[in-house]
Amino acid sequence: MSKLTSLIRQTEIIKLAKRKAFDWETLDKHLARKGEELGHELCISKRTFNRDLSEIASLFGIDISFDFKTALYSIVPGDSSEENTHLLEAFDMLQVFGQQRKVPSYLLFEQRKARGTEHLTPILAAIQQQQLIAIHYEKYWMGQFQDRTLQPLALKEFKRRWYLLALDEGKVFKVFGLDRIRNLDILQERFQTLQNMDFERYFQDVFGIINTPGNPVEDVILTFTEFKGRYIKSLPLHPSQEILVDDGKLLTIGLRVKIEYELVAEILSHGDEVRVDAPERLKEMVKKKVENVIKGILLT
């Protein structure tokens, strides 16, 4: 059995588990049907299935376990990484391309591509091997380059851009945009982190990647038009998003976040389909930005 067939089967197991808890008979029928659709033999023994569950946990970070009370398999709540949904989406697209031999004309991708994605693989390798990296880095706001030696810790995606989370020479935590890295070398020297950083906790109160120390977490209230509100409900702005009013005409949500540049930029991107209700200082920040746009003022 090829590795490709195994990956296809494992992604189908995950998709079934995401829809509902299932028993062995349901899984067997599902794999038989999908095997006919995709042109692969996907039906397996229970021994192979157990091996698949182990590989799914390792590769996708998704744990599927058997509940003896219900006699059903299901995803373990809280222990599985929803971020790995991107891996499933990417693999689905690879299957399409593999069958078509080329990108079909009816699949239209966005033409803008963020620079720096070629650094993803070497940075991942450096993180896993705990090796220092040297980068030639451009600071957009200063218009100059710097050479930095870093301890790479993790990678984070935000709005189709990738960011490196690292410690610099002074062991200070910083974030670097991969699109601003002009050259990258993996050094032979290894490092050992003194403690594991809780990145989910670090970013839980921010929208984006900017997290200014000392900046307070505040209650932000935004109201959207009924039309825009549908998008906000289908793709929440932040994990803390709470619906306060949804009367069929307006949608009002509450967020618990720090007020940073990226949040202001997101609000402005919705134009006249959003209103800032609180806090007052955020209302003033957005108002000032809108006035600058109307007056044609560019901040330099």
From TrEMBL:
Annotated coiled-coil segments of the chain: none
Protein name stated in the entry: WYL domain-containing protein
Domain of life, per lineage: Bacteria
Ranges where the WCX domain occurs: 217-292
Pfam families given in the database record: WCX (PF25583), WYL (PF13280)
Organism lineage string: Bacteria, Pseudomonadati, Bacteroidota, Cytophagia, Cytophagales
Residue ranges occupied by any WYL domain in the UniProt entry: 118-185
